[in-house]
């Protein structure tokens, strides 16, 4: 996180029941960080998801400026599986702006029963900052705080020296890298092996960088008018599909989710197609060349979590790229996420959905029969908060990342058959279908690395790819050369194919 950090979160949060989820909004100077934590059985907290948004300026701290800030935070929490205020046990605000009464009031509806308790790492009542000490009187509490802070600085410096001298974790190899965008923001990448191109989407920069993988240079940057939620590639038709986010659930917004069609021979936009209220993911069927886009319509949190939110609906749109038209669209649940296509079985797998909330279906992966455009079943995932999905279809395996765990699902039995507990796993997932491994970004307690998941053995490899002390936001794999591309902050790191 940009501001208080994971250790600050744990230090400032009051005890909570095991299994409960806690949201933290950190008004840092470099970014607005939105984090969702879960409480373990031993009382410790673990970060489920954390995302940096643009920093909040003084102009945002007004009655008219705060609603977009709250909406952006809500969008992150929804992506982590929060569907109603009752899903959050407590909401904490951090940073100087957290003491602003307008901020406190604006964020209260995100948490049921007014459970916006305090700020972290130094809890302060919502009435305002603590009164100042009388003039001329030494404040022993302040002095003690200064002493503790000084000791912490010494410790941090000492640890840094030890790491610099080789006494910490092993250093990352000096992999070649190229800058592709901002430091903050999620990255997703797709590879055109034949053309030697890597397309890297930066959601916050609203752009896609086109990287020459042979020369390791950015040869073009394609800009869009809205944040990007997904990209997909059809190399045979020389088309790149970029799905934009849309209105983020604003009922009165005129911004619609749009699929941008890019000709990869010119890197120019050749068509735009409105797909719904809010885009969530996109995938291509390489056999039929049809494009599938997930969308949501969300008009606000429901007050009673036991009542179906009739204003929420998820749709899957089917697009013919040749006519640039939506040829079918059907509802299949109340929330949607990323989507992958199995062209052999004509099945789509959609992450993070409830296809039958009336009868109480669980969160998980929705299986859609593309021949009939009907829901064909569900792969139940124990946790809500499913964020990422990728597939090794030759191994009949889905890779599911979210809620502090990497899970593997069998597409034949449609069940989760392996759970690999990892703290801090997130980001887009690169899959090598030749070696049957997946590369998952981990920003947890062991540092910044790409974890190697051995899909056939259903386990984490003893080896990992070290990436240095910068936040990982995803990975991609060239299916032909098997080279690995690690998305590290604002750069792409080129990792040679494993031996």
- Rg calc: 23 Å
Low-confidence stretches: 1-7, 120-169, 301-309, 356-360
Helices, by number, come to: 4
The count of strands amounts to 33
Name the strands of the widest sheet in spatial order: 3-2-1-4-5
Shape: globular
> How far apart lie the N and C ends?
34 Å
Major beta-sheet overview: 5 strands, mixed
Helix proportion: 10-25%
Strand content: 35-45%
Give average pLDDT, whole number: 77
What structural class do the secondary elements suggest? mainly beta
What does this molecule look like?
- With 499 residues, the protein is mainly beta.
- Helix content is 11%, strand content 43%.
- The protein contains four helices and 33 strands.
- It has helices at 5-12, 66-79, 101-107, 140-164, and strands at residues 21-27, 32-39, 45-53, 90-94, 116-119, 177-179, 187-192, 197-202, 207-212, 217-223, 228-234, 239-244, 257-263, 268-276, 278-284, 291-297, 313-320, 325-333, 339-342, 347-351, 364-369, 374-380, 386-392, 397-402, 405-410, 415-421, 425-432, 437-444, 447-454, 459-466, 472-477, 484-488, 491-495.
- The strands form eight sheets. It has a five-stranded mixed beta sheet, with helices on both faces. A four-stranded antiparallel beta sheet has the order 6-33-32-31, with no helix packed on it. A four-stranded antiparallel beta sheet has the order 7-8-9-10, with no helix packed on it.
- The protein is globular, with a radius of gyration of 23 Å.
- The two termini are 34 Å apart.
Question: How are the secondary structure elements laid out?
Answer:
Elements: H1 5-12, E1 21-27, E2 32-39, E3 45-53, H2 66-79, E4 90-94, H3 101-107, E5 116-119, H4 140-164, E6 177-179, E7 187-192, E8 197-202, E9 207-212, E10 217-223, E11 228-234, E12 239-244, E13 257-263, E14 268-276, E15 278-284, E16 291-297, E17 313-320, E18 325-333, E19 339-342, E20 347-351, E21 364-369, E22 374-380, E23 386-392, E24 397-402, E25 405-410, E26 415-421, E27 425-432, E28 437-444, E29 447-454, E30 459-466, E31 472-477, E32 484-488, E33 491-495
Parallel strand pairs: 1-4, 4-5
Antiparallel strand pairs: 1-2, 2-3, 6-33, 7-8, 8-9, 9-10, 11-12, 12-13, 13-14, 15-16, 16-17, 17-18, 19-20, 20-21, 21-22, 23-24, 24-25, 25-26, 27-28, 28-29, 29-30, 31-32, 32-33
């Amino acid at each position: 996180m940009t501001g208080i950090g994971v250790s600050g979160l744990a230090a400032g949060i009051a005890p909570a029941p095991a299994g409960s989820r806690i949201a933290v909004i950190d008004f840092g100077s470099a970014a607005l960080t939105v984090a969702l934590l879960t409480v373990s059985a031993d009382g410790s907290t673990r970060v489920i998801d954390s995302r940096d948004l643009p920093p909040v300026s003084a102009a945002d701290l007004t009655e008219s400026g705060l609603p977009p800030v709250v909406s952006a935070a809500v969008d992150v929490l929804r992506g982590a599986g929060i569907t109603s205020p009752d899903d959050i046990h407590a909401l904490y605000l951090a940073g100087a702006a957290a003491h602003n009464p307008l901020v406190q009031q604006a964020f209260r509806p995100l948490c049921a029963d007014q459970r916006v308790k305090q700020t972290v790492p130094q809890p302060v009542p919502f009435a305002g900052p603590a009164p100042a000490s009388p003039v001329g009187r030494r404040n022993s509490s302040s002095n003690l705080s200064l002493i503790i802070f000084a000791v912490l600085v010494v410790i941090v410096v000492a640890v840094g020296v030890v790491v610099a001298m080789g006494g910490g974790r092993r250093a990352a190899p000096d992999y070649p890298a190229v800058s592709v965008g901002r430091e903050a923001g999620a990255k997703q990448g797709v590879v055109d092996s034949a053309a030697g191109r890597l397309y890297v989407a930066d959601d916050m920069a609203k752009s896609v960088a086109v990287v020459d993988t042979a020369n390791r240079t950015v040869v073009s940057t394609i800009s869009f008018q809205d944040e990007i939620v997904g990209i997909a590639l059809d190399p045979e038709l020389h088309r790149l599909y970029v799905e934009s986010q849309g209105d983020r659930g604003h009922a009165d917004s005129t911004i619609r989710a749009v699929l941008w069609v890019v000709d990869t021979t010119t890197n120019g936009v050749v068509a735009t197609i409105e797909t719904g209220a809010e885009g969530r993911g996109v995938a291509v069927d390489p056999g039929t060349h049809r494009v599938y886009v997930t969308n949501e319509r969300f008009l606000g949190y429901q007050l009673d979590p036991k009542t179906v939110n009739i204003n929420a609906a998820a749709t899957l749109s089917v697009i013919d790229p040749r006519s640039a038209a939506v040829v079918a669209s059907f509802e299949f649940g109340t929330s949607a996420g990323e989507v992958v296509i199995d062209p052999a079985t004509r099945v789509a797998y959609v992450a993070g959905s409830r296809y039958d909330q009336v009868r109480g279906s669980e969160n998980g992966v929705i299986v859609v029969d593309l021949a009939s455009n009907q829901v064909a079943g569900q792969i139940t995932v124990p946790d809500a908060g499913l964020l990422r999905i990728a597939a090794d279809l030759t191994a009949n395996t889905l890779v599911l990342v979210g809620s502090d765990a990497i899970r593997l699902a069998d597409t034949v039995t449609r069940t989760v058959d392996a759970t690999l507990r990892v703290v801090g796993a997130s980001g887009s997932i690169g899959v090598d279908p030749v070696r049957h491994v997946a590369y998952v970004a981990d920003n947890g307690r062991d540092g910044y690395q790409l974890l190697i998941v051995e899909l056939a053995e259903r386990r984490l490899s003893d080896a990992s790819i070290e990436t240095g002390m910068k936040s990982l936001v995803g990975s991609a794999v060239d299916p032909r050369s098997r080279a690995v591309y690690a998305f590290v902050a604002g750069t792409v790191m080129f990792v040679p194919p494993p031996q």
